[in-house]
Write a structure and sequence with these properties.
Layout (H helix, E strand, L loop, with lengths): L1 E4 L3 H11 L5 H19 L5 E7 L4 E7 L5 E6 L3 H8 L6 E2 L1 E6 L6 E7 L8 E5 L2 E2 L3 H12 L4 E6 L1 E2 L1 H10 L5 E5 L5 E2 L5 E2 L5 H6 L4
Parallel strand pairs: 1-12, 4-5, 4-6, 4-8, 8-10, 9-11, 10-12
Antiparallel strand pairs: 2-3, 6-7, 13-14
Helix pairs in contact: 1-2, 2-3
């Protein structure tokens, strides 16, 4: 597994505002969307392309286009939905799948309650969207499901990561083709499994606490 922390002043600037407890939900959603697009730029550096011939207003030339099968973007519901628009803005021709996962707040284990993805992901590059890599259980379960379906190149985009979650992924996904792209690896997890200093519950910050 490979982890890539995006070191850019605009990333740091937007992340600082996301961390601020005074930032309201509309502003949080907008900044998260902008931050995801910046992370996506780095995450897609190795997206697969193929040569294509085109005609410019001046002459014929060669360029590139995204290879087929097209990349698949998979937000983990619910908080991952807030990252979807920022990702597909950069990859508008990508297909989108959905994975609903919930974490037991006592055991911190993740379970799947919704799944809308192709059965066969052979040859597909997959981009998983989950704002927080905290304990690592949710992302590990999601990525194992993608690999079970044949995905051979998985990149997870996370706003924040904790060292404990990174360690779990390195252990559980050893030898698998997985990359994590994040804006920061923070200090630690607290007793409730929240990232410190973190930004709180990303889903609640984006959408409120209804339900």
């Amino acid at each position: 597994m490979r982890i890539h922390v995006v070191d850019h002043p605009l990333v740091a600037h937007k992340l600082t505002t996301l961390r601020d407890a005074r930032t309201d939900s509309p502003t949080f959603r907008r900044l998260a969307d902008e931050l995801v697009t910046l992370l996506a730029y780095e995450a897609t550096r190795d997206v697969r392309v193929e040569e294509v011939g085109i005609t410019t207003p001046v002459t014929r030339t060669m360029g590139v286009q995204l290879s087929r099968p097209r990349p698949l973007v998979v937000p983990i519901i619910r908080a991952g939905l807030g990252m979807l628009e920022g990702m597909v803005r950069l990859l508008p021709t990508a297909e989108v799948g959905f994975l609903g996962m919930i974490r037991d707040e006592e055991t911190l284990q993740a379970s799947t309650y919704a799944n809308r993805m192709p059965d066969d992901l052979s040859g597909r590059q997959v981009y998983v969207l989950d704002p927080m890599l905290a304990t690592g259980g949710t992302l590990v379960a999601a990525i194992k499901e993608l690999i079970r379906r044949g995905a051979d190149d998985v990149t997870a985009l996370c706003l924040l990561a904790a060292p404990e979650g990174v360690a779990v992924m390195e252990r559980e996904l050893a030898g698998t083709p997985v990359t994590v792209v994040t804006a920061s690896v923070d200090e630690r997890l607290d007793e409730q499994g929240f990232i410190v200093p973190g930004l709180g519950d990303a889903g609640d910050r984006m959408y409120g606490t209804a339900g």
